[in-house]
Write a structure and sequence with these properties.
It is built from 12 helices and 10 strands. The strands form 2 sheets. Strands 4-5-3-6-2-7-8-9 form an 8-stranded mixed β-sheet, with helices on both faces. The protein has a two-stranded antiparallel sheet with strand order 1-10. A hairpin with a 5-residue loop joins strand 4 and strand 5. The relative contact order is 0.20.
């Protein structure tokens, strides 16, 4: 992407897009993808907020190197403004906010939310597979899966569950730890055909990440692979997916606050 295109993206008015990043099953790599896409979008000139819904380990917050002062619940309840609650990572490229205990019916104040071009949720499902109120109201859902049969089966079950719970009709999927593009395309053709035939929904390939040892090395260093290793194969893959996000259709019935043009 050249400089002129980057400037146009930064200045053009645009909806604040919310993306729920959901693991097909535990260990699929949703945190890697959510954090990596957040940094990749920031590299495109966007101002990005990452919501960390993992209260046990706060892995996304740790890998971002952020120290937030509050939570989404604090902002929703009016205990502090969003700008005061978020923490930024070592590169200050991405703002990070832990979820805390969200309450249904409360949202972020629109003026605060529209300060960001994209809001990604490292989503955590409950025991019944339901998402948080904030993630459930996202414009797009991105399911992270692996190329093994159990994960493919889990991804289909996740699509079915989220479709029934939230009436989502379009699902983007990213395959983590994949070997080749042809293998990914074969998986996605079968999954898309099954989802269309039995559920009447779209399952769309959003990209794939190779088995890249630099991802694990980044975790050892306490860093996101995109930030730590800009030339890594996984970074290239994440940047490719990030570059396609602006063309994803927005869910029509999701809240659509419009962001004013602003420099990142």
């Amino acid at each position: 992407m050249d400089q002129a295109e980057s400037l146009r993206r930064m200045l053009a008015p645009r909806t604040t897009r919310r993306i729920a990043v959901v693991a097909s099953e535990r260990g699929a790599g949703a945190t890697t993808v959510a954090l990596g896409l957040s940094h990749a979008l920031a590299m495109q000139g966007e101002r990005v907020l990452l919501l960390d819904e993992d209260p046990a380990t706060a892995r996304a917050t740790r890998l971002a190197g952020a120290a937030p002062a509050g939570t989404l619940a604090d902002v929703q309840e009016g205990r502090m403004p969003l700008e005061a609650a978020v923490g930024t990572g070592t590169s200050a490229a991405v703002s990070v906010l832990p979820a805390g205990r969200q309450r249904a019916g409360l949202d972020l104040p629109v003026p605060a939310l529209t300060a960001f071009r994209s809001v990604l949720v490292d989503a955590a499902a409950d025991a019944d597979g339901a998402l948080s109120p904030f993630a459930g109201g996202a414009h797009n859902v991105l399911i992270v899966m692996r190329p093994e049969l159990p994960s493919i089966t889990a991804a289909y079950a996740c699509i079915k569950r989220l479709h029934h719970l939230y009436a989502w009709r379009r699902f983007h999927l990213i395959v983590n730890m994949a070997a080749t593009d042809s293998a990914v395309q074969a998986i996605m053709r079968n999954l898309a055909r099954t989802a269309s035939q039995y559920l009447g929904v779209e399952a769309i390939c959003a990209g794939w990440l190779p088995a890249d040892p630099l991802v694990a090395r980044g975790v050892q260093l306490g860093r996101c692979v995109v930030e730590a290793f800009p030339a890594a194969p996984a970074t290239t893959a994440l940047r490719r997916t990030a570059g396609s996000i602006s063309s994803w259709p927005l869910r029509a019935d999701a809240p659509v606050p419009v962001a004013a043009p602003a420099m990142a």
